[in-house]
Write the structure tokens for this entry.
Amino acid sequence: MRNIILNLAVSLDGFIEGPNGETDWCIMDDDMGFTDFLDTVDTIFYGRVSYDAWGQYQPDEQSSDMEKEIWKTVHSKAKYVFTRQPGDDLHVNYISTHIVEQVRAIQQQPGRDIWLYGGRSLINSFIHSDLINVFRLSYHPVVLGGGLPLMGQLQNRINLRHIKTNVFRSGVVELMYEKPID
């Protein structure tokens, strides 16, 4: 079965966006291996708001070659958007009902792992439905003091098993956890 991996940047105080929705604090260095991660997935799950903001994003001409290549790779993946209001993008699969059943069916299909991109509402929905296999959180060396927190109100405790910790020259610390196998 394909894993669903939550791979996300987080501030030290637990926010995934600043008070005004900003993400300019996110660091992307070549030693972070993000392109290696992208090679392990062939599918991306988006919430509607995240897809509208990032699903078609194109870096500007001043962006680094690395950033341009990353976005080209991101856009080459199969995309699923979870929304109550399906859109008309022919390059996207929209899911609005029977979410758990449809996600489980996608996991059973052959292929690489699945990146749960977000946003927070979708992430929390996946947490509540016990659909995330791997938590891969990159803590950035910034305290935002407010914004959109990663976790909403959780109904139950989630016990995880540490897999790996990576520390990058920028000061980003990536923590990886998985759900223990019962």
About this structure: The two ends are 15 Å apart (CA to CA). The chain is about 25% helix and 30% strand.
